[in-house]
Structures are given as C-alpha cells and as structure tokens.
Amino acid sequence: MSNENDCIFCGADTSFGSGLFVNRISADMYTDEGEYREGYGCSQCMMLECDRCNKGIAIDDDITPDLLCGEAPSPRNALFADGSHRVHEECLTKEEQIEWQEEQKRYNLDGLVQIGDCS
Questions:
Q1: Please, are residues 53 and 91 in contact by the beta-carbon 8 Å criterion?
Q2: Residue 99 domain-assigned?
C-alpha cells in the first residue's frame, strides 16, 4: 500500500476523486505474512459471494433467509431449503421471490417495519 486511502486488499486508490471513495468501507486484515493492515476496502473487494451463482453481491444487497421473514437470525432460519445462506435477489426461487416481495410490503414509506406476524 502506498497511501492510507489505498484498498488494503487490492491496493486500488479509494481517495476522494478516485471514483471509489463513496463506496469504500473501513476494513482491517492480517496478510499471509502476519502483517496487520487497517484502512479501507474498495467495494469490489468487499463483495460477498452468492451461494447459488458464485458471483459477487454488493454489501447490503445480499438476501438471507432471516430477511424473508424479518426475524433475527437463528438456526431455524439460517439456510434456504437448498442449503444456501446468502443470495442475490435474482437468484431467489419463485416462492422466495414472492416471500421477499411480501416482506418488502411490510415496510412503510419511512422504511420502518410494520408490526405483525410473518408466518
């Protein structure tokens, strides 16, 4: 890393004006050599892998089973029926898409969850 604004994973410049500043995320890691790095991760390096298509999912765009019902994560809702945990919206099955759309309707215009049973 040449400066404090470089991505700690790939070295890309995440400073203001780089095009990566807005989506950079505070991050830390240990390298294979045991060196501790602290700084920022670019949005590309911080993507999560979809369990169904193995493509990257942007941070906060992943869907997990607990989100379909608005419940706290638990062993009961930790995995989809096929064993997947984290997926893209486009990778949801038809049934899961229906559940996801219903869950989205539970949110009012202020982004607050409406109280109710999600069974």
A1: yes
A2: yes
Residue 54 and residue 38 share a domain? no
Does 25 lie in the same domain as 1?
yes
Would you say 15 and 21 are in contact if contact means Cβ atoms under 8 Å apart?
yes
Contact 117, 111 (CB under 8 A): no
User: 40 with 54, same domain?
Assistant: no
Number of domains in the chain: 2
At residue 3, the pLDDT reads: 85
The low-confidence residues of the chain, meaning pLDDT below 50, are 109-110, 114-117, 119
Which 3-state string (H, E, C) describes 57-89? ECCCCCECHHHHHCCCCCHHHCCCCCCCCCECH
Mean confidence (pLDDT) of the chain: 82
Distance from C-alpha of 108 to C-alpha of 85, rounded to nearest angstrom:
26
Rg (CA), the chain: 18
What pTM was computed for the model?
0.66
